[in-house]
Design brief:
By secondary structure, this protein is an alpha/beta fold. The protein has a single domain, classed as TIM Barrel. Helices cover 43% and strands 13% of the residues. The protein contains twelve helices and twelve strands. Helix 6 packs parallel to helix 7 and helix 10 packs parallel to helix 11. It starts with a helix and ends with a helix. Bound molecules: beta-D-glucopyranose (BGC). The site of beta-D-glucopyranose has 7 residues, from loops. Beta-D-glucopyranose binds next to loops.
Length: 345
């Protein structure tokens, strides 16, 4: 009881500090004053267009972007889409590491359809396996990809945000990442001085890695990101894509009395970091695989979406219409309870 009271009073204090994060004012490409905090809040609640352009080739994982998706997503009330893209599967392996122009055109088409439906777009580099496995060898190619993306997307409106790299992990620890990140930002900032840029730490954008992440102090248009899937034994139960590593199905949520408190404390630590470092937070992925029982899945989704809302963290559900999907591609309709748990927790 006392523990719960302590967590509650601490979180109320944090929320008031987060609301009072000073607005460092910048001008965006349209000449409008905007701060990173404001840019983050304009994202509102979003959804990931996952397993589409981040598959080795669009369609390989059973889903493709359809133009109607943008309308469906916007009219449900989502304000942005996160667009995961596996650029590394479409760029040459040797210098000059040229990105396939046909693939670039496809990504631009998807973005244009999203803009038409008034959705902001978070464009990232996703599933860059070679970079996580051998950062030393791969950094030149990674930077060459950003050099090209900066040029190719220079004319995009200020409703497009860049995310430097999805989920650094394996050999790409936060320490390694801290060494590489400034070079990537320098490239991006040449053409995009005011564009909001999203950056997370290692261990798959773990909330615990924020404290090790070094964001260049002079860059005030950065938004820090974390991904939230805890407890993994619950959210990833029965997930075939994990093979032998998939936790067994049947895990409930909450599993015991402590689980809610653990989640709440995770969010509180992220909020503390945000206040201390004066950086807004984007929970760029959270979600539960479809194998969990419906009621538990809703409870977990409401808990996490509710905490994002409570702390004023902007967020994006993982994902639209695949294994974690909030929309059923066969019936072509929303799984309404999941949609509402995300949008109205
Ligand atoms: C990965 C997806 C995976 C999801 C949940 C994402 O970052 O890109 O492939 O399904 O996390 O594990």
């Amino acid at each position: 009881m006392y523990q719960r009271f302590r967590v509650l009073s601490k979180s109320l204090l944090l929320i008031s500090l987060l609301l009072n994060m000073p607005d460092c004012v910048f001008a965006d490409d349209m000449g409008q004053p905007i701060s990173a905090k404001e840019a983050a809040s304009r994202l509102g609640v979003g959804i990931n267009l996952g397993n589409m352009l981040d598959a080795p080739n669009e369609g390989d994982w059973g889903v493709r972007f359809e133009n109607d998706y943008a309308r469906i997503i916007r009219s449900a009330g989502f304000q942005h889409v996160r667009l995961p893209v596996r650029w590394s599967a479409h760029a040459e392996k040797t210098t000059p590491f040229r990105i396939d122009p046909v693939f670039v055109a496809r990504v631009k088409t998807v973005m244009a359809v999203c803009h038409k439906h008034d959705l902001r777009v978070v464009l990232n580099i996703h599933h860059y396996e070679e970079m996580h496995a051998d950062p030393e060898k791969e950094t030149a190619r990674f930077l060459a990809i950003w050099r090209q993306l900066s040029e190719l997307f220079a004319a995009q409106p200020d409703t497009v945000y860049f995310e430097v790299l999805n989920e650094p992990h394996d050999k790409l620890t936060t320490m390694e990442w801290n060494e590489i990140l400034p070079a990537a930002l320098e490239i991006i900032r040449k053409k995009h001085p005011h564009r909001p840029v999203i950056v997370g730490g290692g261990n798959w954008n773990s909330p615990d890695e924020l404290t090790h992440l070094k964001l260049p102090a002079e860059d005030q248009m950065l938004i820090a990101t974390v991904h939230y899937y805890r407890p993994h034994e619950f959210t990833h139960q029965g997930a075939e894509f994990l093979g032998d590593k998939a936790p067994p199905a049947g895990r409930k949520f909450p599993f015991d009395l402590k689980e809610n408190t653990i989640i709440q404390e995770d969010f509180q630590r992220v909020a503390e970091w945000s206040v201390k470092n004066q950086r807004p937070i984007y929970v760029g992925e959270f979600g539960c695989y479809h194998i969990a029982s419906g009621e538990d899945r809703l409870r977990w989704t409401r808990t996490v979406a509710g905490l994002c809302k409570q702390y004023g963290f902007t967020s994006a559900y993982w994902e639209f219409c695949s294994g974690f999907g909030a929309w059923d591609p066969e019936r072509r309709e929303w799984r309404k309870e999941i949609r509402d748990a995300i949008l109205k927790p």
